[in-house]
Write a structure and sequence with these properties.
Elements: E1 2-4, E2 7-9, H1 24-33, H2 41-45, H3 50-63, H4 72-82, H5 99-111, H6 120-129, E3 137-138, E4 146-147, H7 158-167, H8 185-197, H9 206-214, H10 233-239
């Protein structure tokens, strides 16, 4: 453990014999094999986020130049089987439609240049119907989550959406998941991305936010998502 100004820092100690280069072949082999054993306990437990998991895996494979190793036709058919009559797409076959998994599905199809494999017009209507009065978006018909979606800019109330995102900005320059919530790297990633797409990034206090992000780095070099939390690779992606 490390201490900074009397506060314990939750960091890790990197072993001297740890790899100092990225083992791309091993990463690619692992991802390519994932899901091949569909009866595995771990595979079954991850069904609730299957669509997003496929997106994450395909993105990594694409970055490593290994996308051709994935079964394109099988993945597209899986996505088509997850679309509901309302236009929304679920995490897996038989799961309720949700905005997050609808987004992941569209991102996958965009990667494969196959967006027209699904009913795009129904997807647009589904997303449009989830926008709330305050400009935010519910994740599903029950409104359990709040998300921001700007993939189809001409059918949503953009000014209200921008207003909502800005209302989530905190005194420290970061963003929370809703007004008054604690700043978090993941939320900052989403909100600044949203403001960039909508041409409103100038409304962010860049210096203040920059300092907040710099303070997330720990002595080991890793990054945490918020103060006094452990480091993680997901936070590294969000902040870089």
């Amino acid at each position: 453990m490390f201490y900074f100004q009397g506060t314990q820092v939750k960091d890790v100690t990197i072993k001297a014999d740890a790899p100092n280069s990225l083992l791309l072949d091993k990463h690619a082999d692992y991802i390519a094999a994932y899901g091949s054993k569909k009866d595995d306990y771990e595979y079954t437990l991850s069904e609730y986020l299957r669509m997003s998991g496929i997106y994450w895996g395909l993105t990594v494979m694409d970055l490593m130049g290994q996308l051709s190793r994935m079964n394109r036709d099988e993945i597209i058919e899986f996505i088509k089987s997850c679309q509901h009559d309302c236009g929304g797409i679920g995490a897996s076959i038989g799961h309720d439609p949700h905005l997050l998994y609808t987004l992941s599905a569209v991102q996958i199809l965009s990667l494969y240049d196959s967006v027209n494999s699904i009913d795009v017009d129904k997807v647009v209507e589904y997303v449009k119907g989830l926008q709330q009065e305050d400009g935010s978006f519910a994740g599903d018909k029950w409104g359990t989550f709040s998300y921001f979606y700007v993939g189809k800019l001409d059918v949503i109330k953009m000014e209200k959406a921008v207003e909502f995102v800005l209302s989530c900005m905190n005194f420290d320059g970061g963003f929370g998941c809703r007004p008054g919530s604690e700043s978090h790297a993941g939320q900052i990633y989403c909100c600044t991305g949203f403001l960039s797409v909508t041409g409103q990034l100038h409304q962010v206090n860049a210096d203040l936010l920059g300092w907040w992000l710099c303070e997330r780095q720990l002595p080991s070099g890793g990054l945490n998502g918020r103060p006094e939390k452990v480091l993680g690779s997901l936070h590294l992606k969000a902040m870089v």
